[in-house]
Amino acid sequence: MMKTRAAKFGLGQSVRQRDDAFSGVIIDVDASYDGPVGETGAVSTDQPFYKVLVLDETTGVLVYAAEQSLMAGPEPENAALPHLKCWFRHDDQGRLQPRFVDLN
User: Fold this and answer.
1) Average pLDDT in the 47-55 region?
2) Cβ contact 21:44 at 8 Å
3) Distance from C-alpha of 103 to C-alpha of 6, rounded to nearest angstrom
4) Cα 104 from Cα 36, distance rounded (Å)
């Protein structure tokens, strides 16, 4: 039986990959790996996995990443903010909050 743990990062939070391959914003969280069997290599599947929206000035890419490979990242660059408006709004404190979920 797999033991799941609480996710370290939340929806709308900025993250970056530990080896600086990308930075982006969390748009979804899975309690454990939810992809094809055997696709994670040496990465443990019993940890949270995140869908990270990686944006640049013209486009975005969705990346599926294990919690162990992520760390808190810088706020999105101004060029990315127009793309984020379809997914997020800014709350009273200026943080990104998902448009489709009302979080407190």
Assistant:
1) 90
2) no
3) 16
4) 33
